[in-house]
Amino acid sequence: MVRTHGGYCFHREQGSPPDYCVPSAKWPCASGEKYYGQGPMQISYNYNYGAAGEAIGVDLLSHPDLVATDPVISFQTAIWFWMTPQSPKPSPHDVMVGRWQPENRDRYLALDVTISLKKASWLRMTPQSSRPPSSSSDDIIIGRWQPADRDVEAGEIAGYGVITEIIDGGVECGKGIVEPGSRDRIGYYKRYCDILGVSYGDNLDCNNQTLFGR
């Protein structure tokens, strides 16, 4: 989350973001509203605002600014994102707790096949439960998420790199190099692991991962 909004300095996406409105029968965009990144997890797109709002009982499609202006709603959406699998992605929670295990095809394309980061499970405590076969970020960290064979073949091996893919994979992952954004995330992650005296685990980057669903 620190990387996502500049060390907690920004509660809204910086620059001139688009409206992040895509066609959706279930989560149609409200007239005049924009769904750019807001809150601790900088959730974006109408389908995320709609699903998060349904989970917490708030109409975020009509009132997306509440994610930035209401502190309770802001962190509720962050917890929702962390704990909720969104197919084909596991929840970050499932990855971190070891619940998600990659399939064989993910392992074949990965540089490092070690599944780890279980020691950091307590850093990401809130489970998401509505995105099978994907999982929450915390589930990934504590080993609750177990990648299937297809995940392993795509380089999706449990570790912090899968968290980056879930959060911003289209921009930062699968390019054969560690993108600046991913490098920042890893740096923040290591900083807090050092402060807490816990292991980083392995598989910290996502440079050789094939994006979920591809």
Automatic annotation (TrEMBL):
The organism encoding this protein is Zingiber officinale
Molecular functions per Gene Ontology: endochitinase activity
The record lists its disulfide bonds as: 21-29, 173-206
What residue stretches are annotated with the Glycoside hydrolase family 19 catalytic domain? 73-83
Classification via Gene3D superfamilies: 1.10.530.10
| EC number(s) per entry | 3.2.1.14
**Protein name per the record:** chitinase
Q: Does the keyword Disulfide bond apply?
A: yes
Q: Name one Pfam family in it.
A: Glyco_hydro_19
